[in-house]
Amino acid sequence: MEVHHHSHTARKKWTHYFWEFLMLFLAVFCGFLAENQREHMIEHQREKKFIRSLISDLSADTNRLGTIIKLRNETAVMLDSFMVLLNKPDAEKFSRTIYYFNSYATRGVAFRFTAADGTMQQLKNGGNLRLIRKASVSDSIIAYDVVNRGYVWGGQDEEEIMDTYRNIAENVFDGRILNAMRDENNNVSMPDYDPPFRKTADAVFRLNYRIHMLSIYNKTLRYQARSLKENAVKLIIQLKKEYKLK
Length: 246
Fold this sequence. Notes:
Blueprint: H1 14-86, H2 95-105, H3 108-111, H4 118-125, H5 135-169, H6 175-180, H7 201-242
């Protein structure tokens, strides 16, 4: 009778299982680190893309604000001259200039500022502001946005003053003459003669106050436009320095 002996495999030591577990853990951990690093790189690339786009928007803002400041400088001089001529005893002799100044007293569209805020909206509304890793940068971006919106609100108040001016001016100036002063592109030209207008003490008194208010708003918003432009320039410099951009 034959006796069969079953072969037994040698039992593995605990250190073998430990090294297997360690190698598996390291493989998973290294994979996690690689994926995490890849996500960080993608987010950093997105961050830089937003910053470049924001710089482009800010540059557009500074150009527009520069134009607005120039127009407001001209308006400041014009409004002062308008009030002087309107109150002259012989104002009728200067009516062509008075009509011209009247047409420009309420050119609110020329001053209207709409920020190039496409990137800003993406940062705020898309939850992308978290991509800006440096607190000093995100704080500066938010601060600029606050000043920007405050300036826009001031412009809306100015347009309300312009409306009250128009309500008085319609009883003083002849709409037919004002219409003839504008070409098909709405550009204004001064009449080549002194057209009549209704100059009454009450109308002049009321126009004086509205011109005064227009002057106040114009100077205030000119100051704010200068300040906003300075903030935009400073933010551009900060972004370029922090992100080493040219």
